[in-house]
């Protein structure tokens, strides 16, 4: 009853307090959701601030309770700031339940926060199952998987996704980056490499700070029989003597199996080259021995042996395998001196002419040979016998074999020695090695001697009247040859008419009369010929003596001479000469004048240098000589007895002198004619007179001539001047002509008269203007101001005065230029010159100026064609570069390989040369590392692998600038949109969910809201959720789109107390490339007191000593297995003393009476009256124990 009153009073007091004070309440959101703290948050960091509201506005005090919570967190009680005091580790503990409280000094309000530990990439991947070793055969096919490396990373997301690679890369193996599968990429060879030690690098995929770990992979290659054997100690080549005995070992041939793991034995065979089986090869040992008689001089053996040897790998049963190798063994035989030299014949015969010259090679095929080789084949060759000195042989020293040439060493003479015979020897160093042959040579007689005259010259003299038939002299020649070759016959080479010769006796006979005057000497050539046709020539000289039988003979039938009148000195008028063919003194001549027609005393004749010279010794007067002619007769007489003579007429002409010059009627003639006068027209008639009376020098002898121009002609007899061609004043406007008149005089005696003719040509307008200095090319800078000089054109009119004055005009009109009509200077008009103008008409007019020219004549003449001035407009840098395809948008798929081109910027500048040479650039500050711009071609390429999840769009500022002196620039923008590729894996955050549910939760209860994200875009980021494991009984479901895990039916902790659900999130990427993320939801089913505790026994009895210390275990009570909780979760106590005096005994509860024997009152835990009053040292106490769920 007292207890009831006390309880009632407590309840009353509590109700009163509640009515008088309102408790504070937390305002923070995370009390209803969760608080995320990343595991790398530094100690001492502020992680949250508790906020609460008190209705009374009293000061609040904040704190944290719980041993584990206070280990990690501390709260500033005044402000509620939560500080981290110990480092978190998500991999050790991914979440915790922390109880925070707030107090208004009257009441304490507690609430629990679910703190999720956020993952950071702080763990490198861990390899499992090390060390990694694998044995594979060397014939493992390329592409076969041989091993799988396993590594994991406890981090979440990309930090927990592991990629594998070899570091450094292997040329023979590749590793799958995702699965860790190692495959063969190149053919292996045990004989090259027996093992590979590779380093595997496992790297997580965190984009900010990836971590990696290395592991070794040892790959051992096992050998297989895949290699043919090889010979060792190659090449095989040796020399052996030709007389080695049978069984002699030449060499041991060795081959080995290249398969080094388990090499096989080798078998040896000779395939080819073993002529007559003279060698034997042991099949097993490879020993090569001599099996037959060897003779180097045998033609089959002389070149040696080239044995083809095969080595075959042997199987275990000694049978040959298919693995073979072939080589060549060269064997040369070493010579022994076992052969004497020999000639190719025992006897040589030949006939040669005695005329064979020294050095002549006899037509004999002599060959000497010693079949040995080297020094064993060396021998000497020599001749012996009478007269052997007439011949030589070569070579005399021979090695092996040689053709012996026999040559004439001395001149041969059939008349002295008609035949030769001698011996030919070939001697070796060994005395019994001698070769012998006989040589017989017979000479052939030849006509080798010419006839020889007894005298080199036969000389004879005879008078020219010697009668024909007289024998004059005998010629004699002898020949040293025998027989018919020695018989001599005589002939004249030129067969003279006056002489003959007897061919047998050599007598010379006179055949015809001689004439001294015709031929004073005969030189005859005599030919002496023997019976063999050999000839010798000799000379015969016949001198003819003179007889006086010829009269003198003048060289001319008549002679003519002349002289000028009044000559004061002696003048020679004629030179006369006669000849006499007789010889002195019969031909000595004398000359006399035997008659003269006039002035006989004026002439005389004297001998000068063999000529009879007729001279006039006094001056003659032309007017006194009849007709100017005098006639003489001259006689020539020889010195013979009786003397003979001849006469010749001589005519002397007296020549008149020229002493009067011609004279013109005027000294100067002046005349004007129009330039269009026709050719051949008469211009002027000139006249001259001569006072000489003779025809030769007088008026009749005058001849006119003209100098000064070929445009005029002068009649040499009449003196008429005419034109020879059309005249052109523009070429020549005035002519000065020289007119000459000459008489019949010759040389200095000729007389000349001179006059001048001045002809002026009058102009007519017959020439149109003509352009000079064409073509015209001018350079003008565009945008030039008005009156800028362009160029001056020039047209020339050769006419005179107004006829030659030129007027210029631009035709057709050109608005860009003006021209000075008088000077032809062209200037700009002020209309803007734009080189880049797109108007076709303006473009032509700016660059071409058509100019016409006309003179002022009557009628005026115009130039036959206009001239064109070609204007080269020089560029000014007056145009900015123009983008043709910017601004624009380029779409690029992410993951595009580095160096891929995706856009070409097109830009133009109408300026030219450097002003129009455009260079492109990316503006500084732009993401230049991800793109490269070719400054010339404008092609944009990726310089990094693009990742849309990092940067989804680029704004590239493109600058175009020309190369002018003052560059002009343009800027535009290219928007690069990175298209999504399904390359991101859905990532749960967190990856592990720990959820506690009471088993009494209803259906469709929210278990957890999964947070999963996919950094892709669009369908690639659209996620679908599935429970793939741990939900065999269908107690849970997950939202297909929202990822909310819910209960489907009621839970029963006694049936299953925990669930591990594997949740997969699959993106909606293209089929075949979809990616999956996985999360684990650990669901703990919390107990609800829906089962009464049951003791396994109805009663428990025990005894204890009274001295046992407090807290000693005295009895173990085992609960019924219906409860899954451990005993510490039960409270056990005496029924008379419930755990709290302020609360009723909880229900349901189990009660059990347990009798306890106490060994003294001091140890009685009940404090019962009997113990206190009776103080019994030992007594029983029946205690009723209760067991209640906490």
From TrEMBL:
InterPro entries, sorted: Cadherin (IPR039808), Cadherin-like_dom (IPR002126), Cadherin-like_sf (IPR015919), Cadherin_CS (IPR020894)
One Gene Ontology cellular component annotation held by this UniProt entry: catenin complex
UniProt topology in membrane: Single-pass type I membrane protein
Name of the protein this chain belongs to: Cadherin-23
Gene Ontology BP, a term: homophilic cell adhesion via plasma membrane adhesion molecules
Cross-referenced SMART domains: CA
PANTHER family recorded: CADHERIN DOMAIN-CONTAINING PROTEIN, CADHERIN-23
Localization per Swiss-Prot or TrEMBL: Cell membrane
Entry keyword set: Calcium, Cell adhesion, Cell membrane, Glycoprotein, Hearing, Membrane, Repeat, Signal, Transmembrane, Transmembrane helix
Signal peptide bounds: 1-19
Domain Cadherin: 37-127, 128-231, 232-343, 344-453, 454-554, 555-664, 665-771, 772-883, 884-988, 989-1095
Biological role stated in the UniProt entry: Cadherins are calcium-dependent cell adhesion proteins. They preferentially interact with themselves in a homophilic manner in connecting cells. CDH23 is required for establishing and/or maintaining the proper organization of the stereocilia bundle of hair cells in the cochlea and the vestibule during late embryonic/early postnatal development. It is part of the functional network formed by USH1C, USH1G, CDH23 and MYO7A that mediates mechanotransduction in cochlear hair cells. Required for normal hearing.
One GO MF term attached to the UniProt entry: cadherin binding
Keyword field contains Repeat: yes
């Amino acid at each position: 009853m007292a207890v009831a009153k006390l309880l009632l009073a407590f309840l009353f007091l509590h109700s009163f307090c509640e009515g008088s004070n309102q408790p504070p309440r937390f305002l923070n959101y995370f009390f209803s959701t969760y608080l995320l703290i990343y595991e790398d948050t530094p100690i001492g960091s502020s992680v949250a601030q508790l906020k609460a509201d008190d209705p009374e506005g009293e000061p609040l005090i904040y704190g944290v309770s719980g041993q584990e919570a206070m280990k990690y967190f501390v709260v500033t009680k005044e402000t509620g700031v939560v500080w981290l005091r110990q480092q978190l580790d998500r991999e050790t503990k991914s979440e915790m339940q922390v109880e925070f409280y707030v107090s208004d000094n009257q009441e304490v309000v507690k609430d629990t926060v679910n703190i999720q530990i956020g993952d950071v990439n702080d763990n490198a991947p861990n390899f499992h199952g090390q060390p990694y070793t694998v044995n594979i055969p060397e014939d493992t096919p390329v592409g076969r998987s041989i091993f799988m490396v396993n590594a994991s990373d406890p981090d979440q997301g990309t930090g927990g996704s592991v990629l594998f690679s070899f570091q450094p890369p292997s040329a023979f193996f590749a590793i799958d980056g995702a699965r860790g599968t190692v495959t063969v990429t190149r053919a292996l060879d045990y004989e090259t490499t027996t093992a590979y030690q590779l380093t595997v690098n496992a790297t997580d995929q965190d984009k900010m700070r990836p971590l990696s770990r290395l592991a070794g992979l040892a790959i051992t290659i096992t050998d297989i029989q895949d290699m043919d054997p090889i010979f060792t100690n190659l090449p095989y080549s040796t020399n052996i003597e030709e007389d080695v005995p049978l069984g002699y070992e030449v060499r041991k041939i060795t081959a080995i199996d290249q398969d080094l793991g388990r090499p096989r034995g080798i078998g040896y065979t000779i395939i080819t080259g073993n002529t007559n089986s003279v060698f034997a090869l042991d099949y097993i040992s490879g020993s090569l021995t001599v099996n037959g008689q060897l003779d180097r001089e045998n033609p089959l053996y002389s070149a040696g042996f080239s044995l083809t040897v095969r080595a075959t790998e042997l199987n275990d049963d000694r049978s040959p395998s298919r693995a073979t190798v072939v080589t060549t063994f060269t064997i040369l035989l070493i010579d022994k001196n076992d052969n004497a030299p020999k000639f190719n014949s025992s006897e040589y015969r030949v006939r040669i002419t005695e005329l064979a010259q020294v050095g002549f090679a006899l037509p004999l095929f002599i060959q000497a040979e010693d079949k040995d080789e080297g020094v064993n084949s060396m021998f000497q060759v020599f001749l012996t016998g009478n007269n052997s000195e007439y011949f030589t042989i070569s070579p005399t020293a021979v090695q092996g074999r040689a053709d012996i040439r026999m040559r004439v060493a001395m001149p041969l003479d059939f008349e002295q020695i008609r035949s030769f015979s001698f011996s030919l020897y070939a001697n070796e160093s060994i005395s019994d090695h001698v070769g012998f042959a006989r040589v017989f040579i017979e000479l052939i007689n030849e006509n080798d001697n010419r006839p020889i005259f007894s005298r080199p010259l036969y000389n004879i003299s005879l008078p020219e009247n010697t009668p024909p038939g007289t024998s004059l002299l005998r010629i004699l020649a002898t020949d040293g040859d025998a027989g018919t070759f020695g018989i001599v016959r005589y002939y004249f080479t030129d067969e003279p008419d006056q002489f003959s010769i007897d061919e047998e006796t050599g007598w010379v006979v006179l055949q015809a009369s001689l004439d001294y005057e015709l031929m004073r000497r005969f030189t005859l050539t005599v030919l002496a010929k023997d019976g063999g046709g050999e000839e010798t020539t000799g000379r015969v000289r016949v001198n003819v003596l003179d007889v006086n039988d010829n009269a003198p003979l003048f060289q001319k039938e008549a002679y003519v001479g002349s002289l000028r009148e009044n000559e004061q000195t002696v003048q020679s008028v004629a030179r006369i000469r006669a000849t006499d063919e007789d010889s002195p003194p019969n031909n000595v001549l004398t000359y006399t004048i035997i008659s003269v027609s006039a002035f006989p005393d004026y002439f005389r004749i004297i001998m000068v240098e063999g000529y009879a010279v007729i001279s006039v010794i006094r001056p003659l007067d032309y007017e006194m000589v009849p007709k100017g002619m005098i006639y003489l007769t001259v006689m020539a007489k020889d010195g013979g007895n009786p003397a003979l003579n001849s006469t010749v007429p001589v005519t002397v002409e007296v020549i008149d002198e020229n002493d009067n010059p011609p004279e013109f009627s005027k000294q100067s003639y002046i005349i004007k004619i129009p330039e269009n006068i026709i050719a051949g027209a008469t211009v002027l008639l000139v006249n001259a007179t001569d006072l000489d009376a003779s025809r030769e020098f007088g008026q009749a002898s005058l001849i006119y001539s003209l100098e000064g121009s070929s445009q005029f002609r002068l009649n040499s007899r009449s003196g008429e001047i005419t034109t020879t061609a059309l005249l052109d004043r523009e070429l020549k406007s005035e002519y000065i002509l020289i007119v000459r008149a000459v008489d019949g005089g010759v040389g200095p005696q000729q007389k000349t008269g001179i006059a001048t003719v001045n002809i002026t040509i009058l102009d007519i307008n017959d020439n149109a203007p003509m352009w000079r200095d064409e073509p015209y090319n001018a350079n003008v800078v565009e945008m030039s101001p008005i009156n800028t000089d362009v160029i001056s054109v020039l047209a020339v009119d050769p006419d005179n005065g107004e006829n030659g004055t030129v007027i210029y005009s631009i035709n057709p009109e050109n608005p860009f230029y003006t021209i000075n009509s008088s000077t032809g200077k062209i200037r700009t008009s002020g209309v803007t010159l734009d080189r880049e103008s797109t108007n076709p008409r303006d473009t032509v007019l700016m660059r071409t100026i058509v100019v016409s020219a006309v003179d002022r004549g009557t009628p005026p003449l115009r130039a036959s064609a206009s001239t064109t001035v070609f204007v080269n407009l020089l560029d000014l840098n007056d145009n900015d570069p123009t983008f043709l395809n910017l601004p624009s948008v380029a779409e690029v798929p992410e993951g595009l390989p580095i160096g891929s081109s995706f856009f070409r910027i097109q830009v133009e500048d109408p300026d030219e040369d450097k002003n129009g040479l455009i260079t492109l650039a990316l503006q500084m500050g732009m993401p230049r590392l991800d793109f490269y711009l070719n400054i010339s071609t404008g092609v944009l390429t990726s310089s990094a692998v693009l990742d849309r999840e990092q940067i989804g769009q680029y704004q590239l500022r493109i600058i175009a600038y020309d190369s002018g002196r003052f560059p002009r620039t343009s800027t535009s923008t290219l928007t690069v949109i990175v298209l999504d590729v399904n390359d991101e894996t859905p990532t749960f955050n967190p990856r592990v969910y720990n959820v506690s549910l009471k088993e009494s939760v209803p259906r469709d209860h929210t278990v957890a809201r999964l947070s999963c994200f996919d950094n892709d875009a669009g369908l690639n980021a659209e996620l679908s959720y599935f429970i793939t494991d741990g939900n065999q009984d269908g107690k849970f479901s997950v939202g297909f789109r929202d990822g909310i895990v819910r209960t489907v039916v009621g839970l029963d902790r006694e049936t299953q107390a925990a669930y591990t659900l594997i949740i997969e999130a699959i993106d909606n990427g293209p089929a075949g490339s979809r990616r999956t993320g996985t999360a684990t939801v650990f669901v703990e089913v919390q107990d609800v007191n829906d089962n009464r505790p049951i003791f396994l026994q109805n009663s428990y009895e025990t005894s204890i000593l009274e001295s046992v210390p407090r807290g000693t275990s005295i009895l173990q009570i085992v609960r019924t297995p219906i409860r899954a909780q451990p005993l510490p979760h039960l409270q056990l106590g005496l029924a008379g003393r419930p755990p709290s005096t302020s609360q009723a005994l909880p229900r349901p509860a189990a009660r059990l009476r347990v009798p306890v024997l106490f060994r003294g009152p001091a140890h009685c835990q009940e404090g019962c009256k009997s113990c206190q009053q009776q103080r019994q040292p030992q007594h029983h106490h029946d205690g009723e124990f209760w067991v209640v769920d906490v």
